[in-house]
């Protein structure tokens, strides 16, 4: 039996490479490249520094600044200087603010088919568009990898998605991933790699493939991957990097764990409704809904291809007078191309506001919608409050649909505009200018790290105690995201390097009294439903609750990255043995849990002292993660292993 592409790349990077592991088995893989962005990067580099390694041990590490770009005080610019000096000293490339969104720039300038990439951002799987196994993780995991350690994960299952047929005019790559989200839901990809095959992918350019692998993060998938073929070669050639090309694909007789087929001929424009990326319906089903704002960009849809499609549709037309339309381009390279070919003028003339090249409104960094506003976004997440306006309704759609809505002022299927469709092809050669990428210093010993007052020391945790006691501080539903746990946005994001300050905002969109209650009670427990901690990789969603004294999180199931982050910061992750026992715990109940017997696959018992009941719980921990928890977190554990 042949191998699928995921197995091939994994096998090549396995630390213990004797045989192909079975799905679910714990594995450790060698990571070739890492990326960080500023919002998770400051913490990741503080952790890297604490390891005491003089230079990163990866083939390539890049530090990007794209999230915290709104400089309304000293915090963000201080972070940028810290990141730049750390990169210069420790052998890391630094992409300056203004160069573009990390995933877009990484694809353009650094991605290499067949390599592994670990990034402290959940949309790192964008690199799967160029044939990489690219995985999102918490900053601490990325720090450990930069320090020369392997990355640990369970061997994923592999889902084969076969694309047949051809996308029809005004239907785009975004509609493919929205269709997969509609079918599989936001928890359908947990523990899986989504691997694309079939005739239909031959016509998809690398940026279009990257839209699909990027938003595969919303499935909860470990990553998504496309083969490396003539499209990959053409993209790398246009980037002046054809020498990085190598063909890669699954064997014809490869086996897979699951299958899905999408006939592109039949696909229609789709849209995700508030407040989850899997609440997908046909655009026509919502036709006529009044629209107040249209946001274009984000790492999902800010590529050259996306913006050219938008420009062709906007050319000679005007944005509706009641709509505020904004566009955040993916990179400096893309802006340059559109200026040179004239499309930039078509966009501005139509009345679109040009925002900075960066994450911008995708993470609530400016351009928030009005109260009760309807915002149509080409982004990947529409979680409650993420826009910065809690009462607003954010919908996710393709650039074609977004432009159609901007022109008419209501939700509109782009096919109903009655305008001519102009297909977009990639330029043969992009204009390359890497002057905003700073190479590491040749004299690292002379580089001083710049630490402004926003850079606060790392909080540490005590080793796990043998008995955990306290109150249930909060009871939550299914699909709680890390945006619920640790919100972002223009006010909170600048506090990412200051845990005492940022912890005052934990669970702000759900319950503003949480931080005060947690402090008053001396910490306690959180309980929740399925897929707890989906979404962003932000380790602050574990670190800040840890700082507030959260000892264990007890849920029906966890999302992958958040589970790893909880372990990394010493919070005990538990799942109900019987899902129905979720009803046996109420907010305010007093619980106690004995942990002295914690072993792989052991069952623990929660004593609900308020109700006088015993509740059996299980956990997903192996030897290594138990050792990490017992040490008080991954950093303490790594130092112990080293010494
Ligand atoms: C996001 O899209 O939610 C973010 C902001 O990029 C996060 C990272 C972060 O919170 O810093 C992510 O996706 O991991
Ligand atoms: Fe930035 Fe949004 Fe992409 Fe996250 S999803 S990396 S905030 S553009």
Portion of residues in beta strands equals 15-25%
DSSP helix count? 20
Shape, per Cα inertia axes = globular
From the 3D structure, determine the CATH topology of the largest domain.
Aconitase, domain 3
Low-pLDDT stretches: none
The biggest beta sheet, please? 7 strands, mixed, barrel
Q: Could you tell me how far the N terminus lies from the C terminus, measured between alpha carbons in angstroms?
A: 44 Å
- The averaged pLDDT comes out at 97
Q: Estimate nothing, just give the exact number of structural domains.
A: 3
Structural class: alpha/beta
Strand order, largest beta sheet: 20-21-22-23-26-25-24
Kindly provide the name of the CATH class of the largest domain. Answer: Alpha Beta
Helix coverage percent of residues? 25-40%
In CATH, the homologous superfamily of the largest domain goes by the name Aconitase, domain 3
Please state the oligomeric state of the protein chains shown. Answer: single chain
Which kinds of small molecule does this entry bind, naming each only once? alpha-methylisocitric acid, iron/sulfur cluster
Number of strands: 26
From the alpha carbons, calculate the radius of gyration and give it in angstroms. Answer: 23 Å
